[in-house]
Amino acid sequence: MLEIRNLHASVAGTEILKGIDLSVRAGEVHAIMGPNGSGKSTLAQLLAGHPAYTVTSGSIHFDGGDLTELQPEERARAGVFLAFQYPVEIRGVTNAYFLRSALNAIRKSRGQEELDPVDFLEVLDQKLKAIGWDDSLMNRPVNEGFSGGEKKRNEILQLAVLEPRLAILDETDSGLDIDALKTVAEAVNRLRAKDRAFVVVTHYQRLLNYIVPDYVHVLAEGRIVKSGGKELAHELEARGYDWLREPAAV
Amino acid sequence: MTGAVERFLSDQRAFVGNGAGGSLAWVKELRAQAIARFTALGLPTTAQEDWRFTSVQAIAETAFALPSTPRADAPSAKEIRAYEVCEAGRHLVVFVNGRYSGALSSVAGLPAGVKVGSLAEALKTDGELVRRYLGKYIPDDHAFAALNMSFVFDGGFVYIPPGVTMEEPVQFLYLSVPGAVPTVSHPRSLVVVERMGRASVVETYAGHGDGVYLTNAVSEIVVADGARADIYRIQREREQAFHVASTATHQGRDSVVQLHPVVLGAALARHDINVVLDGENGLALLNGLYILGGNQHADHHTTIDHAKPHCESHEYFNGVLDGGSHGVFNGRIIVRPGAQRTDSKQTNNNLVLSEDARADSQPQLEIYADDVKCTHGATLGPIDEGAMFYMRSRGIPLAEARSLLTYGFGAEIVDRMEIAPLQAQLDRMIRRRLLGTERTA
């Protein structure tokens, strides 16, 4: 589904990603771990098309197509979704209105009929039931005055409604207490599906106790320095990241 | 500017000379004092701190005539429907060029003791009541407010007796019908809500037809102990209009005032708002919006005077500035000595959509008590790129993301209002202005 080959990327002339290779197949959950500044969030935002990042060499293919040629909104319509580490506040626009606009933009691009408010509420209701949440966030302005936990829940709710093929979770665990973390992880688990892949970016192993990955990759200084199964996450928790940074040249 | 002052003086002499304003001695006296004050003050200049960003040169250079008789080409009842926010037949008081129009107004089924109508009529029937309040609340250092008082004779009047809640809003519709020569009107609103009473009033200022005109409005809102007044003020004047206004509210203890000024129209607009919290435990909400384009200029100068302890004020002003427009916001908060436990919050957010548009925002805090909470914040800038990326990453196209973010600046203010038909009307106007369509997506 997602094929990243020798990806180099920079922001404002500084190279952040220095040759990433990653293959993600449908149905899989990949965790990307790494210390601060390793390039984890850059990779996540780059996949969603953040304009600040420039691909300098290498390639990203999604379902066979060149993802780097697509605008952020085109990527979303193709089925890429990024759950933001810091969800953005949008004054004066309710969550319900925002989500319906997004869903309709995606539906329109697929030749499906746009949903009116009544039909949308029905869809929303189903999705909320599926993940076991209520609609208390829907009539508030997007992310405005939301607690940390509410913001992250809201990202997962958007994921549920927009039904992407590839969901990238950028530090969804940051700023969450254990109860909020469990709530969010449980919803994500319910959204796992055969035709949907997850890339879970996190600094801590904690989240991966609840969202159990198939593969774990360690990113350091812009490169994947180690890949393995879920047990790698436990090893990182026990040993930290420093042992991986020792130069290979020795 | 001496020429301009001279012109207003001679017009005022003619106005009082022909008896158009009625004959009450105390009103004559108020007018005489006011014209003397106007003469002493003169028209403001940009050398004055409070008028630094707003030049009234264009007003000074225009000779405005005072329309003295009702116009034959006044709009029909059907034509004014676009401005109405009330249910048909309910509590609409219409003024054409500053003069009450009985034909266009409709007031029916008022609760006992409530008075709704024109100030000119109230001066005849309830002169002593009006006398207690008229002109008592506007700061006396404002030349245009003094000018308004010197021409005072008509405007909207609401009186709510103690303990009466008026459920339905009253709308004052101030229509200017410009003619071949520039015209001026000096509408005067007076709203008095007695102890434990409650009222909401919508002031709509609009122009009907093209031409140059000046609206020089003053509104006084007096809210007694335990009472509440919600004032909505929709300024949708025509493109060539000048609009200068002062609004003063005065609150007793445990009272609530909500003031929602919206500016969409006029080439040049200036609104001074003076809120006095003169009893403990009062609450004032100022919730304002200005959406400007072309060469429009709009200036809000607000003063919230915490004269007594334990009062709360919340002030939100949003501006959307496109083209070569200029938005000015000056928010002054005064906390008087002894006004402890004051809780005051002020925000002014400006969305600047074009290179040529400009926003100026200035908080002015004067705090003379020590146990208070006062916060203020202002933003000026283009559309937030982070928010743009967020929306696009959800599939929303670039242009729509931009529109939604812009619309949100207006919607945030409209959402705080509490009159559904007015909110719907404003929502349509904002959509038309910012999205180019009235359609609800």
Structure description:
The complex is a heterodimer of chains A (250) and B (441). Chain A has helices spanning 40-48, 72-78, 95-109, 117-131, 148-162, 178-191, 206-210, 231-239, 242-245, and strands spanning 2-11, 14-24, 29-33, 53-62, 65-66, 80-83, 166-170, 197-202, 215-220, 223-228. Chain A is an alpha/beta fold. In chain A, the strands form two sheets. Chain A has a six-stranded mixed β-sheet with strand order 6-7-8-3-9-10, with helices on both faces. In chain A, strands 2-1-4-5 form a four-stranded antiparallel β-sheet. The longest helix of chain A has 15 residues, at 95-109. Chain B has two domains: 2-279, no CATH class; 385-441, no CATH class. Chain B has a ten-stranded mixed β-sheet, with helices on one face. In chain B, strands 3, 4, 6, 7, 9, 11, 13, 15, 17 and 19 form a ten-stranded mixed β-sheet that branches. Chain B is globular. Chain B starts with a helix and ends in a 6-residue tail after the last helix. Chain B is built from nine helices and 20 strands. At the A-B interface, helix 2 and helix 3 of A face helix 7 and helix 8 of B.
